[in-house]
Amino acid sequence: MSQYGEPQGNRRDELLAASTWSTRLVQHDGGQDVIVLPLAPALAALDAVQVPIADGHSLIADYLHGKLLVVVASGWAQLWEFVPDVRLVPYGGWVVVPAPGGVGSYAASWVSLPPPRLTPSQEQADEGEEWGEDGEDEALVGLQPDSLRALVSAGALDPRRLFEGLAGRPATSQTVAS
Questions:
Q1: Which of 4, 59, 84, 175 is most deeply packed, by most CB within 10 A?
Q2: Which residues contact 36 (CB under 8 A, 6 or more apart)?
Q3: For residue 24, which of 124, 125, 118, 151 has the smallest C-alpha distance?
Q4: Burial class (CB in 10 A: 0-12, 13-18, 19+), 82
């Protein structure tokens, strides 16, 4: 039995009844790749390679248009170059994501929440390691508050596993910064 699939019952009703404030249109500002895949084959691929549904993968379902958005670390554009019906959102492009703290809507719903934003350990904060003086992650400093990187962190899903499930063969492509 599949652990992924279209929402049923109360969950489906909740997503269909969601207000326009349930989602945000955000600009892709780089630093990560956003892979857009056909929903049914992508969910089947996740099942095929036994990716757990646990949070931490940054998977957003667009049930309305039949798409799955996967937010991963940057550098995977070449892997998807010749896979039919798969595209990457270009930097500067726009994506619909669930509003912070919400479940989203039928057009943008979490299948797997992104990893939580890290906060500095006391030792890191004392040493100023990659953290601003006020304990803020310096990678987020200067980002527009409604940018993709500010709202959705790259998931833990290795894109090669998703590729293997979707393409039915091992990923042999070298990563290229995208």
A1: 59
A2: 67, 68, 69, 86, 87, 88, 89
A3: 151
A4: exposed
Going across the sheet that includes 67-73, the strands are 87-88, 32-38, 67-73, 59-62, 108-112, 104-105
9-24 per-residue burial string, b: 16 or more CB within 10 A, e: under 16: eeeeebbeebeeebbb
Write the single-letter amino acid at 91. Y
4 alpha carbon, distance to own chain's centre = 15
Alpha carbon distance 50, 165 (integer Å): 9
| Number of Cβ within a 10 Å radius of residue 47 | 16
Cα dihedral sign for 148, 150, 154, 156? negative
**Structure-block tokens of residue 53:** 């549904």
The verdict on pTM exceeding 0.90 is: no
* pLDDT one-digit tens code per residue, 66-111: 999 998 888 888 888 888 899 999 989 999 999 888 889 999 998 8
CA angle 157, 33, 113 (to 5 degrees): 45
**Could you tell me if 91 and 172 are in contact, meaning their C-beta atoms sit under 8 angstroms apart?**
no
pLDDT at 157 over 60: yes
Q: Which pair of tokens denotes residue 60?
A: 């957003």
